[in-house]
Amino acid sequence: MPNVRPMAPLVLSAYTLVTANGRGVGPVLEAIRERRSGLKPCDFEDVTLKTYVGRVAGLEDFSLDHELKPFDCRNNRLAWLGLQQDGFTVAVAEARQRYGAHRIAVVMGTSTSGILETEHAYRARDPQTGQLPGRYTARYRYTHNMFSLGHFTRTCLGLQGPAMVISTACSSSAKAFATAARLMQAGLCDAAIVGGVDSLCHTTLYGFSALQLLSASPCRPCDEDRDGLSLGEAAGYALLEFGERVGGRGTVALLGYGESTDGYHMSHPHPEGAGAVHAIRDSLIRARLRPENIEYVNLHGTATPANDSVEDKAVYSIFGARPACSSTKGWTGHTLGAAGITEAVISALCLEHGVIPGTLNCLRVDPSLKSRILRENQIGPLSCVLSNIFGFGGNNCSLVLGKL
Amino acid sequence: MKTAVQGIGLLASGLAGWDASRTVLAGFRPFRPGDTPDPEALILPPNERRRSSDCVRWAVQVAEEAIAQSGLDPRDVPTVFASSGGEMGVFDQLCRVLATPDRHVSPTLFHQSVHNTAAGYWGIATAGQQSSTALSCYDDSFAAGLLEAISIVCVEERPVLLVSYDLAVPAPLNNARPITEGFAVAFVVAPPLDDSPVIVQMRLEKANGRKSSSLPDPDLERLRLDNPAARSLPMLCAIAVGGSRTVGLDLLDCQQLILNVESCRPSAKAN
Fold first, then answer.
1. Whole-angstrom Cα distance, residue A179 to residue B145?
2. In this predicted complex, what is the ipTM?
3. Residue A384 maps to which CATH number?
4. How far is B164 from chain A (nearest CA, A)?
5. Is residue A5 part of a domain?
6. pLDDT tens, B171-184?
7. N or C: which end of chain A has fewer CB within 10 A?
């Protein structure tokens, strides 16, 4: 039988986020308070799909240089932009002083890494030989390969501890928290950088379109007329340290995580949300909490008809209609492999600033949903949040964040 | 960190399954690569098998072999899938379609492009609901997967199935990542029992210029260097030879996993 035991809280001693709402946590919080969406009609490269995207502005206006030049691609530019916000690199430099560079792990999540480079390279194949351009092949390792983001983050932060990239589709950067927590608990490191970066590319835009999961309008999570998701891009990071070392009263910490799979279908959720229930329950056990301790559930809430209704079943079966539930995808779009860190950071902001975002773009809550779906922002102190992320391959992860 | 190995699956040209390969890896028989294997992965439901990628069938085949040896119910075992590049064959097909004017991507091809495709198909085949991680660490993906698997064993005190695989990369992508031979390996690692035939003690150390373990057989060594999943060969050889051996696996440029492998000799097992 599974051995799920309570875990030691891990403090998010620094965190940062870049989304379509802006650079750094300030603009994200402001957008939440002002209920301003980052979604706009898709103007990404030459894509002709009728859909909305949460595009991060300015990624086309600079390139990575000097020793970072080989890493230059949209995904790593976004990763770099993320590292520059909210004093994150300073916090990491201080942690490096405390623990040593080899005692800090880097666990990042992404679903498509720098695949956009490969897409471009295939368009630029030699018409005679079919070969890819040499400037691409020489940099595959630093751009498209799945570990590129981990390599890049570790290089930028000057860290030498264990590192890996988790890639389990949309749950990637939520699961990065689980892996990092285990590495810390096993004594393999003293602190960890967790995070995720995913950027717009043709693969996901045309892929989700082929699955008929893209909405033609800004996504409307939990709305009775919801008709699909909007893709977004984001970069987010958190520095995790043991609570007993750095945790003062009121600091935001990861209290628990739960992971599961549906074992059902590659791109459809389990009809009863069995895997989701399993992940939520495990996260509560690790956090030493009962369902009634959770005040806010940050839903995966992608706005596809199936996801929102299955997630509702799972959440209602555990929590009933008590906690406030909402999806923040209406602000950021679905940032795929970065959704875990995006929503973990938003949850941390909610805890710190005492705000629960009402589901943006949800005009009328689907009457078949039984959970208490919030439409308007709610202000007031908050101590415990659950964040759900579910992905392709039926891969689920729930995180509990709370104040110490 | 002490763990037992309860089952091993293996597939590469000239290494068709763990039992068949053990004497080769122990040095009693020569390594003779031949045709590229075409695994059946019979545990996959026929529908899923028909549309599965080569990566999926290779990974599922070795997973099935390792789980069968362990005697465990796969539904009770969380999984870790480690691969440097994942579905490179699918990326090739996908990027060819995306370079056409229509860009008509098939939904199946798209969902097969994720790094956790093999993990997802294994979960569907076994109706498992335990956690499943898919990861990459470029050339050191096997070592990173082993680190993740062993930390689950030690922290959560339960068996874990680790699968590591990379297949030959098709043209023209092979200019970007020249892997020429497929390799898939699976280990069931678990909390040690008194009678565990294979015990692995792992520690993470600074590399301090130490080189990772290599192999005396030049063809096996070539395979080890060709394919990230084949970086597991020194560990496999240490288990196959039996007795007490130490193996060093690189983890990025500055760390190593040091594995002390204690394994019953094959003859002792036969008695």
1. 11
2. 0.97
3. 3.40.47.10
4. 14
5. no
6. 999 999 999 999 99
7. N
